[in-house]
User: Which sequence fits this backbone?
């Protein structure tokens, strides 16, 4: 299977600060990137979809100005949580996809906002 | 719109017993169906998937699932539970390979010695 990395794997930040999460597809070109979040003891929910070189589309209820997604290359996408608050504490998982359109998932980033 | 219903948020079985985790889906197009396992504080691991073809799908670690279109089900089974199977299991559906997955709420499997 494909190799997907996320960095950092765990981050603690103070309320009001911003955090950037990187997702890299190491051995294939990700034309599309899905970002999911998983609150404690809950399922994964799609936050946004981005195609390489295009603006991301966000699911209902996800603030696009708070969760900034950049998908500037076929191997790297970033999610920046701006002005983080405790309610943003969650497990963030990227899911790159590309030909032959397999679904891959990163190992996740656990964000804790204090 | 697609949706997934996992019956039972928590299933407990004895070591060596049959594991049966239930999943029903709703989809207006032929679905792609997946089962993932998640251990605490870890990401998702794909157990198996159904796209087309044979309706009985074999996965890793002895798990298998059967796609039953008439019942809109994709239940996950394993003949003999092992302690290491204790984890959270998610069923998911998508329209095709390059569309996002819709996940069920998950079923926590406990294995009793």
Assistant:
């Amino acid at each position: 299977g494909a190799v997907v990395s996320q960095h950092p794997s765990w981050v603690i930040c103070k309320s009001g600060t911003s955090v950037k999460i990187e997702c890299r597809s190491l051995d294939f070109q990700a034309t599309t990137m899905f970002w999911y979040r998983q609150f404690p003891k809950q399922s994964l929910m799609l936050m946004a979809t981005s195609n390489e070189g295009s603006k991301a589309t966000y699911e209902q209820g996800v603030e696009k100005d708070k969760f900034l997604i950049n998908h500037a290359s076929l191997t790297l996408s970033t999610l920046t949580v701006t002005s983080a608050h405790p309610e943003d504490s969650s497990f963030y998982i990227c899911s790159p996809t590309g030909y032959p359109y397999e679904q891959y998932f990163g190992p996740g980033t656990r964000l804790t906002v204090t | 719109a697609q949706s997934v219903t996992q019956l039972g948020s928590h299933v407990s079985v004895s070591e060596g017993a049959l594991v049966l985790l239930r999943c029903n889906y709703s989809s207006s197009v032929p679905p792609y169906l997946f089962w993932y396992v998640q251990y605490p504080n870890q990401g998702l691991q794909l157990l198996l998937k159904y796209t087309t073809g044979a309706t009985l799908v074999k996965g890793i670690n002895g798990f298998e699932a059967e796609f039953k279109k008439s019942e809109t089900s994709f239940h996950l089974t394993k003949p003999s539970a092992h302690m290491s199977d204790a984890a959270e299991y998610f069923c998911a559906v998508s329209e095709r390979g390059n569309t996002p997955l819709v996940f069920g709420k998950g079923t926590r499997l406990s294995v009793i010695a």
In short: Chain B touches chain A at residues 34, 36, 41-44, 46, 90, 94, 96-98, 100-106 (CB under 8 Å). The mean pLDDT of chain B is 94. Residues 32 and 96 of chain B are 6 Å apart (CA to CA). DSSP finds no helices and eleven strands in chain B.
